[in-house]
């Protein structure tokens, strides 16, 4: 039985950097992505709901998620108050029809925010249908030092949130076991940031398939479990020497994702298993692994 | 009052101590410059590596000491494109804060263009009419246009001289094919934005800020910086067009021997000239004037505008 999951595949507007938010809509439309996730940051268009709506209408690309401006470099975007940023992100998501707001855990030095974060996020989530999906981060490694920049924890599964985003570049950077983390998130996994990494201290955001993270395995598991969130391609294409090369990378990422989500030939999972849980390996025939002309690192 | 402006740019970290109060022209008192070349320290993924961050932190600490030595009451710290665009910007900012207690205010490209425009407007005044301002930095090119103090149109493009040299012109002197490719790229990028400005009509006065433009003007015959701020300095498109092919075949060492060109900036001068030439050509500018005030002065002026009139430091000497 062929299961076509409800999961849509979106392009993060950060994936086209240094090209603009507007260009991301254009590329997403042209390549056949199901929508975009808007990274709200210093680009004024990304902060302007009307401009985003016009781009979405013009390119016929739905806005599936909003990534709140949580970075240090965006500390003045949409207010300096972190709760106000989240309220504005929720309002933007509601007005633009996005199902999810992606949010990072607080920085350690945002003490009050860090103390109130878990309860505050629950409260905000209760007031809306929009999902606040808290994203796993990583310790900042610098030479021999490790800086724990996030609080309560970079490993967000240590706290109780209603929804999670799992980011596979961040699991690589944190040198964490991605599939275990996904297991801990269980049915509260609401959103995927798909990218790859090799465990470098730099958060690499490679095209999926070019690193050592279980991108394919995760997608196949999602496909087998009727995951109803979105899969967002969040990759770094700065190295691209031209727009054509950038688009080729983004097309490859989309093809990888679609392929591994289409669990064609897979047996249906056993009745009663909750969405998001790992399907037993015995119930599925082995899936062919497809490479795209680039060597895949074999995990030891 | 004496204010320090700490400019973490793509080429240099510059601490400028300025004596200023509201309603007065900012008077530079002391300059402390360190060449850091942050734009060149960005790796292929756009991150500033550990050595780069170390040097940045040390340079900022040194600049702060200079500010204290010269009696600055306050320091206005800001950063532009190299830090703004670093893929690990957050970590860089956090380390600078942690080790020097400086909160680097990262300006967006738009903010850079607006503040530069403000400085040019205050320098030339209302009599300059519709003003077009061009600035070629290490990381980015800013273009701003307007008739007031706030520009009507601004754009910041990733066409800084340092960035383009690092990305497009390896080799010393660079390969002619590489130079042609860069020329094409620069013109295509600028051409996309030209329409945003030409819709407002022809400017009455075209001015340029930044070291790149000052150096190009100097090699084309303008007065030396030692002659002071008030000497008029111009750059004609014709002389720039003559210089581009000459610069293209010179190795950096030869360029550094040109009047007014520092050794540190000689490698970037060709890319800077290509951008300047493209901008003047596409905007139809035959001649522009060099403005000695730019982003740093704009930051100070904006800050002074925000201070109340009764701020301590207004002159009481009769």
UniProtKB/TrEMBL annotation, chain A:
<dbReference type="InterPro" id="IPR013022">
    <property type="entry name" value="Xyl_isomerase-like_TIM-brl"/>
</dbReference>
<protein>
    <recommendedName>
        <fullName>Xylose isomerase-like TIM barrel domain-containing protein</fullName>
    </recommendedName>
</protein>
<feature type="domain" description="Xylose isomerase-like TIM barrel">
    <location>
        <begin position="25"/>
        <end position="258"/>
    </location>
</feature>
<dbReference type="InterPro" id="IPR050312">
    <property type="entry name" value="IolE/XylAMocC-like"/>
</dbReference>
<dbReference type="Pfam" id="PF01261">
    <property type="entry name" value="AP_endonuc_2"/>
</dbReference>
<feature type="region of interest" description="Disordered">
    <location>
        <begin position="264"/>
        <end position="300"/>
    </location>
</feature>
<feature type="compositionally biased region" description="Low complexity">
    <location>
        <begin position="264"/>
        <end position="282"/>
    </location>
</feature>
<dbReference type="InterPro" id="IPR036237">
    <property type="entry name" value="Xyl_isomerase-like_sf"/>
</dbReference>
UniProtKB/TrEMBL annotation, chain B:
<dbReference type="InterPro" id="IPR003695">
    <property type="entry name" value="Ppx_GppA_N"/>
</dbReference>
<dbReference type="InterPro" id="IPR050273">
    <property type="entry name" value="GppA/Ppx_hydrolase"/>
</dbReference>
<dbReference type="Pfam" id="PF02541">
    <property type="entry name" value="Ppx-GppA"/>
</dbReference>
<dbReference type="InterPro" id="IPR043129">
    <property type="entry name" value="ATPase_NBD"/>
</dbReference>
<feature type="domain" description="Ppx/GppA phosphatase N-terminal">
    <location>
        <begin position="27"/>
        <end position="305"/>
    </location>
</feature>
<protein>
    <recommendedName>
        <fullName>Ppx/GppA phosphatase N-terminal domain-containing protein</fullName>
    </recommendedName>
</protein>
<comment type="similarity">
    <text>Belongs to the GppA/Ppx family.</text>
</comment>
